[in-house]
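Late entry, written up from scratch paper. The run itself happened at the end of the previous shift, but nothing got recorded in the book at the time, so transcribing now.
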Amino acid sequence: MFQLKFQNKTLLFDRPAVMGILNVTPDSFSDGGRYNQMDKALQHCEQMLAEGADFIDIGGCSTRPNNAIATESEEMERVISFLKAVKTAFPDALISIDTFRKNVAEACMEGGADLINDISGGLFDKDMLPYIGENHIPYVMMHCIGTPETMHQYALGGDIHRTVLDFFKQQCQVLESYGERQIILDPGIGFGKSLEANYQLLSDLDRYRYNNLPILIGISRKSLINKVLHTTPDTAENGTTVLNTIALLNGADILRVHDVKNAREAIELVGTFCQYM
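Output as recorded:
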């Protein structure tokens, strides 16, 4: 059974966990501008924690398609103030920082963050993996291709399980060489993959599970739902729950979501179902 050790807390994966999304940006694809005011952000954090979030994932740089990427200083300015406010209001909460920049990661860890969630898996900033490894920081490694500006221009297909597994193997070995083994794998659903590839990645998680590490699935409100159901991010919660349920049945360990209540209910129902299989 996998566990993550933080400075003052240990999280045991005896059941799937929930990572609640807090975007403090004006331009995120689903909720841009909704929580970039402090009072609304703190209210949303309180709600997510009350509904059962195990982590709050704070992001200050949107990487949605056709979007201008925030500069490092812009991201830093957004994230640090919200991180400090959340830690003050909810000192026991586990805080993840969604960044691909080492300097942002370092500043946030010094500010009380517990986990780094890197959409590039260490590709976008050559200093990220050495920093994470040498400081023994729990780390979410997402599969990615290209650059922040081009990653959504790809539509990877073919043997997508092998592609993702090879990436994890390569990057994990780099990170492990610096001393870090507390790694969570994210296949990067919705990032540079065809619709078929996205659904294939939900079908057999163990085909790309490297070294029996836990797998995070982040599908909340994404285009693989909207392209099939003709929904929008604002109307994709039912589709999100359906696909989260499929992911859980196939072995997902963490769900990264906008709606914590729905994810927690899916986890409870799937857990009950599996008891009677």
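The chain has a mean pLDDT of 91.
(Scratch paper discarded after transcription.)
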